Amino acid sequence: MEKVFRDPIHGYIYIQDQIILDLINTKEFQRLRRIKQLGTTSFTFHGAEHSRFGHCLGVYEITRQICDQFQRNYPKEIYGKDGWDDSERLVTLCAALLHDIGHGAYSHTFEHLFDTNHEQIGIEIILSPTTEIHQVLTQVSPDFPEKVAAVIAKKYPNPQVVQMISSQADADRMDYLRRDAYYTGVEYGNYDLTRMLRVMRPYAKGICFKEEGMHAIEDYIVSRYQMFMQVYFHPVSRGMEVILQRLLERARDLYDQDSHYFKQHCELLVPFFSQRYTLEDYLALTDDVLLTYFQLWTKAKDPILSDLACRFINRKPFKSIPLPSQLDQRKLRGAKVILQKIGYNPTYYSGLNDASDLPYDIYRSRIHHPRTQIELMRHDGSFFELSTKSEIVKALSGETIIDRRFYFPREMVKPTQTLEQNSEILRFQQWIQQTLDRNVTKL
């Protein structure tokens, strides 16, 4: 059999195994259509409305191409332990397709607030006998779900399989860079994917690249860096994420005071507020469900809940300023006191956000672990790590980049009605200017 999906990134996505089509048609996988790939980024880049569904198909397609290339050029029958065992193909493709199956509504904000873990939940979805995904996987063999889960957990015995889906140059990153660049409208993520796949090869310890492909790998690393700095770390997207977090925190605090309203109007959130959620509860919550609740909260009696919901629904992001690496906590507390005097509860109307806390990692060659190194193979069969020969990558991987920002209501940089409030806002703006002067950065 062969089915195809039309895709803006890969042209066609080829489905050649019935189990892959059956997995796509499960309710757990179809749920990914209702979860955005980039969360609040669409508030900054309006085209970024793409879903995790499309990304998972893309990761599958890249993995399929890698498996075909490995079997064609490096079969185990000829290359032995440095070759590709095509009996691993099906478990690899299933793991690629399902690698993000555990992501939830506004996943990374939700995880931080309610202590969920999308990787653990993804493994639970695969292993739970109640899910359609598990039932499809067991059609291959009774232990097949455990094999797929082991790949996602990075515990599968074959490092080639694991690194194809989870490494510094894996199918996951290869797809999301191209896909996110396409939908955000930027050019940074358009590295040479075709060349990278041509120079990729298996070896006993996992996956490496031929030495002649080094410039394509450099281009990929630079693309990652630019996407991080220009898209994933964008201050406005993070400002909307701070509002989202504060909105859910306010709702949870109100639930703790009086649960009746939420039990009556927001029943799908109640299990998370009470910390008694099941897998079924988790799967029922998607971005569209939360947005429906947020729209409802715009008319809530609680002024903070209503205001934060309006800010999120109507795209009124918090403003921000960059903070120095050595943060003066006393001065930060002073800024929050000013917010309090003007009438903004700083618990809900301010926030610190570190770019390094976002769910992306910039290439780090010095972290000694086989999944964090990009190895290149010379013609004589010896290896070298990418940054030892590439000055570009060495420069990018030399320092950890942290963009720490303090977020606050945008009204704090505009005049208000009363003289008393204006004087406090003036004090706040003076604090902003002093902070900016220390960072030599524009607001």
TrEMBL record:
Q: Name one Pfam family in it.
A: HD_assoc_2
Biological process (GO) annotations? dGTP catabolic process
Q: Would the keyword Magnesium be found if you checked this record's keyword annotation?
A: no
Q: Which InterPro entries match?
A: dGTPase-like, HD/PDEase_dom, HD_assoc_2, HD_domain
Instruction: Pinpoint the HD domain residues.
Output: 52-177
Keywords, comma-separated and alphabetical? Hydrolase
- Please list the GO terms describing molecular function: dGTPase activity
**Keyword Hydrolase: yes or no?**
yes
* Protein name as annotated: Deoxyguanosinetriphosphate triphosphohydrolase
Q: Tell me the classification of the organism that encodes this protein.
A: Bacteria, Bacillati, Bacillota, Bacilli, Lactobacillales
